[in-house]
Amino acid sequence: MRIRFDKLGVLIAILLGLGTLLAPFATFRANRIVPGSPRSILESLPPIWGTALLIALGVAAVLAILKTSAAARLAVAALGLLALMLLIGTAGSFLTPEGNTYARVSPASGFWTLLFAFLLLAADAITRMKPKPTVRVLLLGVTLGALAAILASGRWDALSLLKEYSGRADVFWNEAAKHVTLAIGSLVAAVVVGLPLGILCHRVRPLRAGVLNVLNLIQTIPSIALFGILIAPLGWIAVNVPGAYAIGVRGIGAAPAFVALFLYSLLPVVANTVVGLAGVPREANEAARGIGMTGAQRLLRVEFPLALPVILTGIRIVLVQNIGLATIAALIGGGGFGVFVFQGIGQTAMDLVLLGAVPTVLLAFAAAIILDALIEINAPLNRAGRTA
């Protein structure tokens, strides 16, 4: 019988080999500032668990290389991710001397390489299985639930990342609320302004090029530069416009961050609205006119529903973009997860950087999956409308 190899599986097996044999699994530091000493899998874990993990990684590499079913590959990826999540917590407890509150244990490059390899295997398996949008959202919920259960169990309490969190728990959730408010609030404002503006650009063709060119120009301005540009006018408004300061308008802080994110959000919303409406079949509009629909009725009942998947794609782009850009708002006092990122960089404390970076990545990842599902759910309705 001829053995068939999977091309992507070969790459995954190489990553598993690199993460297992050539890169450290964990890093031990005497305190949060000093350089750490790398530890391999066998040095980071009790002998029985270290040996079991090495054997499991070898089996996973072989299964990744071979042509196997998508369900089997997903099961291997899920078990591998669960094992990594549990055993990195074990490494924290194993490497930390008893009663030592200063020592720090962090995941090292080998752990992140193995994590990436299993995530790649899971993504490949899910792509091959082509699950329905609701199933993908369910998988996301199960993954986040498992992560929350591990955190609640205290399994990771010995890790440096959780030690950084434990001393900043109240501040963390306060900054998390600011981050989400900036990202979603600016998106909502962009949708409220951008949808009517996109409809207007679609209907009034001479206006379209000018508006899109201006919004394209705003997109070319670097985020930090745009934050800086907004400080002066917003500061002037705060001083000279009655009531502006009372509602939170400042030269620095959340106001310039919100305005900048709003401006960055306009182009995808407006452009996708124009493209979506332009893609509505002429026959659908003519049929709507034929049954006596007014312009407003055609827009709300025919054009907008058919253009909705394209518009949602623009909203997805904006939300993921804003979740990332909101991190930089911390530079001008806007708060958010960027507070921990820049504090960690200033203190040379990489686990503090991760405390801000990891939730940002998870938020963006979850937002992308949920909005992708919404887009696909609306796509069949779009096709049905075109057929009708």
Query: Mind telling me the C-alpha Rg?
Result: 25 Å
Write the CATH homologous superfamily of the largest domain: MetI-like
The assembly state of the depicted protein chains is single chain
- Write the H/E string, N to C: HEEHHHEHHHHHHHHHHH
Subcellular location: Cell membrane
InterPro entries: ABC_transp_perm/SBD, MetI-like, MetI-like_sf
Protein name: ABC transporter permease
Membrane topology: Multi-pass membrane protein
Sum this structure up briefly.
This protein is an all-alpha fold. It has helices at residues 7-22, 41-44, 47-65, 70-95, 109-129, 133-153, 160-166, 169-203, 205-220, 223-240, 254-278, 282-290, 295-325, 338-347, 350-387, and strands at residues 26-29, 37-39, 104-107. The chain folds into two domains: 7-158; 169-387, MetI-like fold (Orthogonal Bundle), CATH 1.10.3720.10.
Pick out its properties:
single chain; 388 residues; mainly alpha; MetI-like fold; 2 domains; 76% helix; 3% strand
Verbal overview:
One of its GO terms (biological process) is glycine betaine transport. Keywords: Membrane, Transmembrane, Transmembrane helix, Transport. It comes from Ferranicluibacter rubi. It is found in: Cell membrane. It is a single chain. The N and C termini lie far apart (51 Å). Helices cover 76% and strands 3% of the residues. Residues 384-388 have low confidence and may be disordered. It has two domains: 7-158; 169-387, MetI-like fold. It has a three-stranded antiparallel sheet with strand order 2-1-3. The chain is mostly helical. The protein has helices at 7-22, 41-44, 47-65, 70-95, 109-129, 133-153, 160-166, 169-203, 205-220, 223-240, 254-278, 282-290, 295-325, 338-347, 350-387, and strands at 26-29, 37-39, 104-107.
